[in-house]
Write a structure and sequence with these properties.
It comes from Mytilus coruscus (Sea mussel). The chain has 10 helices and no strands. By secondary structure, the protein is mainly α.
């Protein structure tokens, strides 16, 4: 920096400095300190406040980063570091715990480490369950590949419902479009939305007739036996 000044200007500045000593090294140190960029505490605090915990950053690494940033902030205690951990941490559970409980910086770090460990263990368990589900799915697909072609070409629900009939029109169910009987009037009961061949009223009537016919036959047979 002092290369920007000529010799006379440097000499004038040097004359204003205190405790320059009698040797070259001391004089050089004093001049270097004078021309060195001045520390801007407010800007250092601003950088400190912008610090956030990264996605893959542990709480200890985040704490170390805040410690390094706080060197030029001239904080008098650990409260600012603790506050920034609460504000900038990636764990909402840790943040809620810190807001709910009064704890020191060390207690906050202990809680954060415990939460990190439990989260890691839970992820391992869940990942294992996902792997088991994936293996089961692959096994199911392999079984399906070994099935006959006519079974592979149809979905399970299609195979199950292949022989199902619609209770309103008598056709295959489920329909690809709307039911053919929708809006149609039954020739037997005159009600809407079903054909006569699927009419439940007609079916009940036929059943009653069959029962009555059977009763009549039984009665006739009984009378004939008694008359003998």
């Amino acid at each position: 920096m002092h290369d920007m000044y000529d010799r006379e200007e440097v000499n004038d500045i040097f004359d204003t400095l205190q405790e320059t000593g009698e040797d070259y090294d001391t004089a050089l140190t004093k001049l270097t300190e004078y021309f060195a960029p001045k520390k801007n505490v407010e800007y250092e605090i601003y950088k400190f406040r912008q610090a956030k915990q990264e996605t893959d950053e542990t709480i200890d690494a985040f704490h170390t980063k805040l410690r390094q940033l706080s060197v030029n902030c001239e904080f008098t205690d650990d409260n600012q570091v603790k506050s920034q951990i609460v504000q900038g941490c990636s764990s909402s559970r840790l943040r809620r715990k810190a807001l709910r409980e009064d704890m020191t910086l060390e207690q906050l770090l202990l809680s954060a480490r415990a939460l990190e460990l439990s989260e890691k263990q839970a992820n391992e368990i869940e990942h294992k369950d996902e792997k088991l589900e994936t293996n089961a799915l692959h096994k199911k697909r392999n079984v399906r590949r070994n099935q006959p072609r006519y079974l592979q070409d149809k979905r399970p629900e299609q195979r199950v419902n292949r022989n199902n009939k619609c209770r309103n029109c008598g056709g295959e169910f489920p329909h690809r479009g709307k039911c053919p009987a929708q809006g149609k009037s039954c020739n037997f009961c005159k009600k809407l939305n079903h054909f006569e061949k699927m009419c439940r009223s007609k079916r009940n009537t036929n059943t009653k007739r069959s029962v009555n016919t059977l009763r009549t036959q039984i009665l006739k047979t009984t009378l004939n036996v008694n008359q003998r």
